[in-house]
Every structure is written in C-alpha cells, then in structure tokens.
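Protein Entry — a single chain follows
Next Lines — sequence and tokenised fold
***
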Amino acid sequence: MDTINSIQKKHLMLYIVLCLFMMIYVSIRLVYIMVIDSDRYAEVIKDLHEREREIKAPRGEIVDRNGEVIATNKTVCTISVIHSQIEDADAVTAMLAKELDMDEEAVRKKVEKVSVREKIKSNVEKQTGDAIRDYHMAGVKVDEDYRRYYPYDSLASKVLGFTGADNQGIVGLEVQYEEYLNGTTGKILTKTDAKGIELDGMAELREEGIPGNTLHTSLDVNIQKYAEQAALKALKEKEANYVSIIVMNPNNGEIYAMVNEPEYNLNEPFVLNYDTEVKQGTKEYQELLNKMWRNQCINDTYEPGSTFKMVTATAALEENVVNVNSTFSCPGYKIVEDRRIRCHKTTGHGAETFVTATQNSCNPAFIEIGMRVGAEKFYLHMNQLGLMSKSGVDLPGEAGTIIHKLENVGQVELATMSFGQSFQITPLQLLRAASAIINGGTLITPHFGVYATDENGEVTKRFEYAASGGALSKETSETMKMVLESVVAEGGGKYGQVEGYRVGGKTATSQKLPRNSGRYIGSFIGFAPADSPQVIAMCIIDEPTGVYYGGTIAAPVISNLYENILPYLNIEKAE
C-alpha cells in the first residue's frame, strides 16, 4: 500500500508541477500579448472589424495658356458586392445584370464568389450608379470614382495623351507630368462584425483624397484648332499619309500648337480612327494602335531636304566662307567624285549669288557652300544648333539624330548633307535650330509645361528650361532673316506670303528612300514678322498625291494659318 501511495503522490506532484508550468506559460503569454505585442494584436482586431476601401482623388486638370480646360475628370462609379452581406443572391444578380447590361451568368459568378469584396464593374456612368444605389440591396456597394475626360475629343491628341483604367498617364503630357497630375488617394473605413457584416448605426469614417495639381501649358486652343483645320484640309486634298504642323514662339520655346493629322479620339483611345478588318485584342490591332498614337513631330525622323539649307547657309556665314555677294554657277548638276548630283532645275540656274541661290534652293550651289565649310566645321555648327542631340521637349519617346560618324564623311556624304539628305532628324529638332538662326543665336528648349497649381490655385511648381546663347552671331542671324525673307518675297516660298505681313521662310521637297520610290515629303518653315520674329511654324505633308513640291503645297498651309493667327497674337502688320 505504501508503494502505491508513493506512486500516486509522485503523479500528483507531477500534475501540480505541470499545471504550474502551464499557468506560468499562459501568464507570460498573456503579458506578452497584452503589453509587449499589444499594438500588433490591436491592429489585427481593428482589421477584423473594419473594412477599408479607397477613394480615388480627382486627377489634376490640364489647361491651355488662357486657362481653357483641355483635360478634366468625369464622375463614374465602381460597382462591387460584399458576399457576407448579401441576403438575396438571385435578386442581386438579376438587378446588376439588368442595370449594367452584363451577362447574368458572369454576374452570378462574381456575386456568389466568397471574398471580402468583389468588383462587378468599374467606369460605370454616374446615372447608372445612382439607379443601382436606389435599390438599397444589402451587400451591393456603389463607390464614386473619376474617369479622364477630354472636352475637345481629338484636340492635340498626340500631345495630351491619355490615361489607363487606373487613371494613370500612359502617353503624352499625361504620363510626362504624372507626379503633378496624380492626386493622393483617400479611404473609407466601415465598422463590421467578425463576419464582415456592417454594424447598424456606425458611421463611415472618411479620409478625403488630395486632388492632383492643374498643369498649365503653352498650348493655345484657338491656334491648335486653326492648325488642325489647316492640316486636315491639306490631308484630304493631297490624300497624304499624314500632315504635321508645329507653331512655336522662337524666343522662348513655348509651343502654341502641335498637330499630327489624322488625330484620334482621346475619349476612345483604344478604338482605331479608321475602319479595319483586324480584330481588337490581337497583336496586329495593338500595332495599329501604337502607330495611331505616334507623334510624328517628335517620335519619327525624316530627311529634311531643302529646309536644312538654312543650317548650311548659317554655317558658311559663320565661317566667313561666303557672304551675300558670293557668286555661284549652276549648270543643272554638280559632279562630286564619281557622282553626278542634279539640281531640281535640270537646265540649271546659271549665275547666282548666295541670296538668289537660297531663293532658288539650288543644290549645286549649296554643295559648293558645304564643301567650303568642310565636314568638321559642318558638324560643329550642327551641334551648336542642337541638331546632334534631342530637343529636350517635355514629351516621352523623342527620337534622336541618325547621321554618319564624322570620320566616315567623305565628299559625297558632305555634298548630300549640305542640301538635307543622307541623315535624319525630327521636325522639332529642325524647328529648334531654325529658331536659333532667327532669334539672334539663342538655342531654346521647346516645351508645353509652364507651371502647376494646387486646388487653391497656388503655384506649386514653375518649370524651367535650358536656353543657351552663342549658337551663332547676331550678325549672321540678321543676315539669315534678310535672306529668308527674300525667299518668301521673291523666291520659291512665295506661296507662304501673308498680306500685310513680312514673312521669312524656306521650302523643301524631300525624296523618301528608296530614291526611286516616287514618294516625297513637302514641307515649309515660315516665321513672322521677318525682321523681329514672334512666331515660327512648320508644315510637313507626308507622301502627297499629285503635286508634291513643298513651296506649292506646304507653304500655302502656313500662309492660311498665319492669316488667322497673326492678328489673334496681336502681331501688327508692316507699315
């Protein structure tokens, strides 16, 4: 018996010790949970009894130089369901399928899915969202959101760009200035029980979002409209591939208009602007969309042709290898090594001065001018005029110069480059160089963004752009303005004249590769007033049908544009 009692006592002691250890462990654990790790468990309890959903902040607007809104927001709704709160799944399914015009089975799968919150559809019109809210069905949630809206549909589409489903910028100014336009998201906190069901009488806690900044641009809606009308008219009349127009202040780089017709509808950016049998969702369709979104003024390069002769002329004047009285002889061609390079006037221009050679856009004369400058100095002046680097415009995807390495430039290469062939640049690069030539030698940075303001109208950021003097001398600039004015007054740019105004400019007719393709680009750069330029514009007509000479088809486009916008810009007529 004593042995049995002894064993029982030992077991009892063991149980007591174990119980003490368990009590000590539980006590320590409770102290740890309630004191040391209390914050984490408080957060767990909070998460268990709160449901959080985002409130999208309105994206900042984009306005033109006069405050005209060109990109804004439209209130839309996001419809979702909370499975644990639904009382009648069949009724909810039928109602949502009807109001949202969706397949009932597709809606049912989402309604019956066991999840904290299931999105049924986003970007729903507010009127439809209000109608769904009026049903007062348990478990159905209607949250207001914002969708980007463009009041002018296609105006400056390839400049503004658009946003995606998450309201973030994808292309154009929308993505370039994302950090300023994108607001700070808010949130709604809802009290629930452990099953996720909202508690009656418990108010929602709202933390409002902060709207994005308004982007103030240099674009002018009226000038953009005029330019788009002129480009569209030329596009249809010449049955061209595309027509681009840029209008800019040559003194500070502010871009008033940038057109690439055909433009597309910013409110339907994933719909092609023409009919096609290619199906949506395919790789081929996406490639067509990418092509439609391209901004030819900055994304594509081209051989500039004779508009580039103003660069060659500038380099020659700077190097003192020519003056306004220098003479040349054009028999209709020039032989360079083993190449016979012809003039557009096959019978030749005969005896010419530097000025008349520029008026005539004579290739043999400019080959001679380029030869006098030499390859090394030629490249030096191209670099000083910003043609060996990107323009720095505040748009994504800018292309760069495609040109021979200096060590690979022989006589033939130099000859063809002298009149704008055998290398490629963007239209905006050339317009930037032309601006420096006529503004006294300052190389500016073309741009759209001017400043940003918050919801109270306070300026939060002024955008600054590089400008450097010394691209050429003021004397050369004055000479070039005089020569280029004579091109419009007396030479090949005569169709660029505007009654009552002094206009300078240069035409071009570029033959596209391969040279025997029969495809051309007609272009014209014009500025006004010629003696003190306040505006410079460029028109490019890609692959026109019929007559393709820049002086005949592109110069009149700028002339017509200037007839409308020069008075609008308060530029006085010449006395």
User: Anything to note?
Assistant: Residues 221 and 349 are 44 Å apart (CA to CA).
